[in-house]
Write a sequence for this structure.
């Protein structure tokens, strides 16, 4: 029994207004079982029912369960291999699917039903989506990764060498598989440069939508393949393989490293525009805050300067060296007093003595 690759990627609320749930990956082989834990945020009133739906390769209703009741399945063949533990009213339950087949490969999600007396019942998607990959070959282990983007966006896929030898890289091959459909070669660099295309090629990306780049890494040179101008119908399993010198690429299956590229329906341009608006708003807010802090500093500086400053005398007194007005008034009053004392007392004048009279 192989290990389950459990990969959790972001709970994203994009700027374009649509919600991407948390995605859980399950890799299983035919004959095994899988448990899908369905849950929704607690709310009032409690859910009265829950749906399990498939949403990608075969969009159908898998089962429905009404609270405190038995569940019902759309396909009678699923009745004996499906069990449910828990109840929708508790906001969580587990759905177990056993005896898996390759046809069970799909994207699943739970949808809870809330009663609404004023209008139609409210349908709320669970907080988790599930991508289930069921492989028929129990011996082949596949490393699966998730790449999410929006309509018009791009996806970067790491490319790996088919061997460990130090051979020169001559090109790259890109393969895709949609569900149980045959693997198709979307891009083969040798066929796009005038050489004979491989026998597995059925449809191709244009050279404008594919870009191969390389960069030095810890273990040598790493190669990445960028897929551009993606649309929702491009959602599928992809693998990228380097074409080595002296090695032919005649395989008709995906490589050991596979990426599930999920292209949402929102427009990436709107998201970038909203992000730019948020960035500009933040810059304006920071600028206004700096201006306000500057005004406060200037105001406090003026107030501190006015407290420490002392009044100075009139400038004409300082320049001419004249005493202050109060000092002049005091000296003038003193002079009046002295003059009045001399006027009230008789003044005796000395006369020269006459020696002859004596």
């Amino acid at each position: 029994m192989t290990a389950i690759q459990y990969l959790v990627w972001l709970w994203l609320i994009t700027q374009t207004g649509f919600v991407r749930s948390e995605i859980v990956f399950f890799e299983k082989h035919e004959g095994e079982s899988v448990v899908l834990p369905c849950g929704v945020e607690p709310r009032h009133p409690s859910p009265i029912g829950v749906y399990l739906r498939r949403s990608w390769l075969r969009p159908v209703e898998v089962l429905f369960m009404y609270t405190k009741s038995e569940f019902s399945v759309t396909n009678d063949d699923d009745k004996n291999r499906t069990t449910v533990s828990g109840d929708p009213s508790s906001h969580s339950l587990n759905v177990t699917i056993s005896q898996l087949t390759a046809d069970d490969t799909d994207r699943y999600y739970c949808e809870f039903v809330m009663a609404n007396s004023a209008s139609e019942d409210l349908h709320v998607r669970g907080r988790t989506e599930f991508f289930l990959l069921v492989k028929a070959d129990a011996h082949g282990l596949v490393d699966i990764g998730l790449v999410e983007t929006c309509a018009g966006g791009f996806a970067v896929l790491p490319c790996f060498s088919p061997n460990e030898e130090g051979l020169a890289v001559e090109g790259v091959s890109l393969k895709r598989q949609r569900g149980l459909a045959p693997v198709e070669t979307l891009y083969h660099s040798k066929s796009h440069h005038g050489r004979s295309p491989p026998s597995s090629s059925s449809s191709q990306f244009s050279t404008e939508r594919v870009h191969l780049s390389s960069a030095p890494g810890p273990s040598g040179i790493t190669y990445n393949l960028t897929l551009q101008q993606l649309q929702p119908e491009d959602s599928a399993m992809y693998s990228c393989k380097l074409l080595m010198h002296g090695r032919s690429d005649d395989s008709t299956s995906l490589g050991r490293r596979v990426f599930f590229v999920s292209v949402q329906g929102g427009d990436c341009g709107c998201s970038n525009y909203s992000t730019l608006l948020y960035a500009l708003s933040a810059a304006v807010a920071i600028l206004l805050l700096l201006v306000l802090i500057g005004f406060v500093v200037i105001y406090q500086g003026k107030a501190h300067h006015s407290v420490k400053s002392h009044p100075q005398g009139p400038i004409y007194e300082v320049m001419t060296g004249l005493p202050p007005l109060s000092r002049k008034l005091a000296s003038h009053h003193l002079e009046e007093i002295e003059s009045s004392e001399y006027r009230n007392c008789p003044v005796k004048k000395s006369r020269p003595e006459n020696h002859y009279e004596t």
Notes: The domain at 1-140 is CATH 2.60.40.10 (Immunoglobulin-like).
